[in-house]
Design goal:
- By secondary structure, the protein is α/β, with parallel strands linked by helices.
- Helices cover about 40% and strands about 25% of the residues.
- It starts with a strand and ends with a helix.
- It has a 6-stranded mixed sheet with strand order 6-7-8-3-9-10, with helices on both faces.
- Helix 10 packs across helix 11.
- The chain has one domain: Rossmann fold (3-Layer(aba) Sandwich).
- It is built from 11 helices and 10 strands.
- The chain binds adenosine-5'-diphosphate (ADP) and magnesium ion.
- Adenosine-5'-diphosphate binds next to strand 2 and helix 1.
- GO terms for molecular function: ATP binding; ATP hydrolysis activity.
- Belongs to the ABC transporter superfamily.
- Keywords: ATP-binding, Nucleotide-binding, Transport.
- This is Cationic peptide transport system ATP-binding protein.
């Protein structure tokens, strides 16, 4: 079976521009490899600064790896062809309100992607936008709303609508749901699970919450200081973790918070 996503030894180095040692090479991500099947959900966990967002950005094409390759459906992705990538792999951002254009109605912003990526006429675009709004639990009236007229949960639904409108293979979410209050977060997570089942989309998300990860993920990747220290099925990592960090990250919200506190003090 061809894997949906194959990540071969991607890594990311930055040149330090300011500070005491300008020009010094910063290693944000040491070479990592892993793969994902169609419809699977991968959770990326690790303390702050461990390279989680770097992985999310490299996969979504928001940044270019220093080395390594990413393959989708057995084809190598061109790291510089963002347009090709953004049709198949979409990203959901953390701050939904800021990622929406305050001056455009929801309908207009959702139509944008269709305008550039399909040759549909206006009526076809509108029809598809209305169908997508309904898929994410919004009403046809919301087509004419501006972002500030929506609640935070509804704004997050618009972001999900924007992510699924081109029917991508993979959605990448980098701590996208942390700002939501728990009941809305639960609704959004359930919405994503429903969409996955309906559309067969794979989902890669960065999370600090063991409860959400255990509930949603098929596979988990654990990061520590730019290195992947463990990767496997959720089942295997819960029942037979190979590293103390994996055990701690998956144990409880409380322990997780304590761990984050101690690592940021280092
Ligand atoms: N544009 C950049 N320039 C320099 N260093 C960066 C840049 N982006 C990330 N880093 C560094 O790479 C490391 C990993 O960052 P990141 O992937 O954002 O971590 P995480 O999401 O796990 O908190 C950090 O040490 C961070 O400071
Ligand atoms: Mg991050």
């Amino acid at each position: 079976m061809t894997k949906l996503l194959e990540v071969h030894a991607i890594c990311k180095y930055y040149q330090q521009k300011q500070g005491w040692l300008p020009g010094r090479r910063i290693c944000a991500l040491e070479p990592i490899s892993f793969s994902l099947n169609k419809g699977e959900t991968l959770a990326i966990m690790g303390e702050t600064g461990s390279g989680k967002s770097t992985i999310a950005k490299l996969i979504a094409g928001a940044d270019v790896p220093s080395n390594g390759e990413i393959w989708l459906h057995g084809k190598r992705l061109d790291p510089h062809n963002y347009r090709q990538r953004c049709r198949d792999i979409r990203m959901i951002f953390q701050d939904s309100m800021r990622s929406l254009n305050p001056q455009l109605t929801i309908g207009k912003q959702l139509s944008e992607a269709l305008k550039f990526n399909t040759n549909w006429n206006l009526a076809q675009q509108t029809e598809h936008v209305l169908q997508t709004l309904s898929k994410v639990g919004l009403l046809p009236d919301h087509y004419h709303f501006y972002p500030h007229m929506l609640s935070t949960g509804q704004q997050q639904r618009v972001c999900i609508a924007r992510a699924i409108i081109l029917e991508p293979q993979i959605i990448v979410a980098d701590e996208a749901f942390v700002a939501l209050d728990p009941s809305i977060r639960a609704q959004i997570i359930n919405l994503i699970l429903d969409l996955q089942e309906d559309m067969g989309i794979s989902f890669i998300f960065v999370s600090h919450s063991p409860e959400i990860v255990k509930h949603v993920a098929d596979k988990i990747l654990i990061m520590h200081r730019g290195k992947m220290i463990e990767f496997g099925t959720t089942e295997a990592l819960i029942h037979n973790p190979q590293h103390q960090l994996t055990r701690m990250l998956l144990q409880s919200e409380l322990l997780n918070k304590a761990l984050k506190h101690t690592t940021t003090q280092e």
